[in-house]
Input
Amino acid sequence: MAQRLNWFLDFDETLATSPLTWALKYAFPRLIENHQLAYDAARFEQAILVAQERSNQEPDPRPVLHALFETLGWPHEYEVPLLHDIMNNYAPELFDDAVPFLEQARARQHRLYLVSNNPMSVRHVEQLGLAAYFDGLYTAKLLNSQPKPHRGLWDEIVRARPEIQDYPTIIVGDDPWSDGLFAENCGLPCWIIDRMNRFTSLHDSKPYRWAHTLLEIAADA
Output
């Protein structure tokens, strides 16, 4: 019989679309088309990568967005409308592989936990009908701890649920600067889901395992 594992899953971009992916799919194309903004795919992707890394140190999205527009040479007057579009219209969309992964993990008697920096993720999990799959739902705000990648969030979880240490734990997320570094700080193995090949340039320099879907992880577990 396979060994029982603890899977600690991020929410945004791991189980469902984040505001960033929603913006890349809807808000940015709409803004570019409506205002005929200059667009070069390679330059845009690199600028988004830099912005995503910076967003892990900067909780306020406005300076991050301002720097992004500066890099792309876009008029700053469009920053506020873009933010309003994201804030007013974003809704998480569950990835097709999320439920199959959760069901396979439960069938193998693994334990599933949510660990997220997004204070709305618990509500989103409940709205999407996923709560029953999880043995615990944790955010930095709920535990009054520092967010990922700081180790404090893990320490608070273990303090509340010491039995978690009875089984091997694997971190699964989408962000090498948040989820990956969090795993490193906790001394835990990590999978990074790179659904859109955003982090190909980082694959050789980071000590994580990489996958395009959750089902790749399920097949390997």
Notes: Residues 102 and 133 are 7 Å apart (CA to CA). Residues 19-89 form one domain. DSSP finds ten helices and six strands in the chain. The chain has a mean pLDDT of 92.
